[in-house]
Amino acid sequence: MRVLKFGGTSLADGRRIRRVAGLVRRAARRHRVVVVASAMAGVTDRLCELIDEAVAGRRVERGVDALECRHVGVLEDLDLAHGRPAIDATSRSIIELRRDLREVASCGNCPGHIRDRIMATGERLSVEVLTAVLKTVGCPARVVDGSEVVVTDDRFSEARVDFQATRRACAGLRERPSVEVPVVTGFIGADSNGRTTTLGRGGSDFSAAILGAALDADRVEIWTDVDGVLSAPPQIVASASRISRLSYEEATELSHFGASVLHRKTVEPLVDRGIPIVVRNTLEPSHPGTEIGPDSPSSSRIAAITAIREVTVLDVTRAGVRPSNAARSALVLGPEDEILMACSASSDGGLLVATPAEKAAGLAHRLSDTAEIVVTNRGSASIVALVGHRLGSQPRVAGRALEALGRCGLTVRAVAAGTSPHALTILVERHELEAVLTTVHAALRLDGGLQGRCQALGSWEVGYSRLAS
Ligand code: ADP
Ligand code: ASP
Ligand code: MG
Predict the structure, then answer these.
(1) Which of 74, 101, 184, 444 could be a cystine partner for 456, CB 3.0 to 4.6 Å?
(2) Residue 217 carries which DSSP code?
(3) Residues with CB under 6 A from ligand 1
(4) Spatial separation of the C-alpha atoms in residues 295 and 284, rounded to whole Å
């Protein structure tokens, strides 16, 4: 069985949805297939804005009308037999959306369970459209709501998955083959009370991995708008090149440090069963893409550079006369806190902490609740990560990257190496991020494909022991 996930970029409009339907029909002729679909491009962002507008008491009717038109517009092009039921299902979702937004407007706030129900609308609409288009092109298909097959806790907007319960909920999909291709809403689960939850922004990749594991799939395919995982964010580094193979560890580091092509939790459910992930381009389906799997390169290498643009830097020190190690403050971190980088190397035992910008206020608050801890906000920055198999132990990588930055007069605020063997992180000025990525990418010759990656590291050999065979 194969799980095929299509992102919002692949479902941006009727033309792209028809292209996706063609790909699914072809795959379904040769394999058992389960499809996972995101919302159409931009729809989840729009739902987010509608929530904010409703909370602020502004009118949202036009915004909802526009969403309905966008989906119905694709369905009206289909023949009635397939289009009509989907138009009816769309109207039902839109009625629920209006009702929820009215409730938000009347309370002046949006409780977590309502927020998740609203945010889930994008996927609930897109699967109706994709399923109807599939039927129109002669591929029998049926809608499956993620809330029926993905069981989570009730941490709304970042729900945690109960993998055992999810496996049980997927028994029907796993054991009863059907001629109809299941088209599952990505991003969505439900708690034990049946309330809709969501898995975090960009979470449809994670949905595909959850289902891949629960269904013992042979592979999970992530179909998107680029040729695979690239050596740098392509919107910043024009010469970014495709990486043909990545290990699970490399892919995990890349997604953790901002490579949005893969949601950061995607790899985890697949590791135990060794299920490969293939990242492919919907616009170039003949392209081989990137295969992510259990095998590691036979020796050290550098694979890619990635970045998180918006981080906040906090200085954590201890008040009082005796210098002491503020790293102890890490003990007070809660599950909601996220540390992207932490360095402590000064005589006063102070700790520099970089955290995602949206989590900085909460973290600073929790840290300064601890006796004697003083937290100073040192402003915004960006984190750049170099990722590659066992790269952390290779001095030449840090040397070349830092030398290139120095030559161009670019500021390095901190460097962390050694915590992960596969990543080296550099804290840089946010306004210099583009220059840093371009400079280091060029200095390490990442645009030259495998050959370039080899040369960048001198005598290092680049290769996969088993994957290459
Ligand atoms: P989808 O809608 O298919 O989920 P996303 O926008 O979430 O697509 O992810 C694909 C995008 O990720 C690409 O268009 C690209 O701009 C961005 N991206 C960032 N870093 C990388 C990378 N290292 N390799 C490939 N794409 C990347
Ligand atoms: N539609 C959701 C989002 O935009 C999930 C996804 O696209 O993966 O975050
Ligand atoms: Mg995505």
Answers:
(1) 444
(2) -
(3) 7-10, 38, 202, 224-226, 229-230, 233-235, 259-261, 304, 306
(4) 26
